[in-house]
Predict the structure.
Amino acid sequence: MASQWGWQEVATDWQEVVNRSDIQVVDIAVPNALHSSIAITAAKAGRIVLAKKPLAMSLEQAESMARAASRVPNLVWFNYRRVPAVGICKEAD
């Protein structure tokens, strides 16, 4: 995947990545069960937090994430890959 997309590097340890000094934004696009721990760790490290929906596995996790991210820029984004308009755009390439 890295070579297909032209990525310069890859990592398998999210904690190592989140704590790197050259990382400013953490875009959380992982299985839902990992959202909370990554978001909270990233926010505590002062990173901008971008999380996809569903935000968390429980209300308690979501509230913990919101508290942690209240001191950093953050947002919840939506993946529209299954929306017909997105498919049509991909076909036009």
The chain is about 40% helix and 15% strand.
